[in-house]
What we know:
Mean pLDDT: 85
Helix content: over 70%
Strand content: under 5%
Radius of gyration: 20 Å
Number of strands: 0
Amino acid sequence: xxxxxxxxxxxxxxxxxxxxxxxxxxxxxxxxxxxxxxxxxxxxxxxxxxxxxxxxxxxxxxxxxxxxxxxxxxxxxxxxxxxxxxxxxxxxxxxxxxxxxxxxxxxxxxxxxxxxxxxxxxxxxxxxxxxxxxxxxxxxxxxxxxxxxxxxxxxxxxxxxxxxxxxxxxxxxxxxxxxxxxxxxxxxxxxxxxxxxxxxxxxxxxxxxx
Length: 210
């Protein structure tokens, strides 16, 4: 992948994060019945949502690059089948951690919000994995689920410590959108780069034969 395509991924992910934060923030404002004092306050609120979405997108991209490095190292350390098993185990543990950790370890009686959050992440992961497999190959199923569940769970640790449902929704929705987008577009960027790099080599071979 060349630098131009990385910049394309960076800016488009920023826009998706900002759009996700704007939509989530406005919907939450309507649902909660909140109002702003005039146009100036409303524009300031939109600016805050936009900036928050950009920061969430950057955070998502940091997690995505960390996943790429981890995946590269995992393929080098474990055999192919072994690395898939490791990803499956970590994915299941991460999902259970999000849904039930504070229920059993924290001693709290009711954590419906954690279960809903886990189901939301699971649903987003399944949809993303389905589309990814349709676009590529069945081998993309496990890595996509791992990234969408395990990596997203790690990225949400900070907001879960706040323990405010509104903040959790505002962070998680744009985060899932950015993660899904990056996972779904990655193979397109890599494939296009490989095709372009292969063209000069093919031309040089034809010229040498001629």
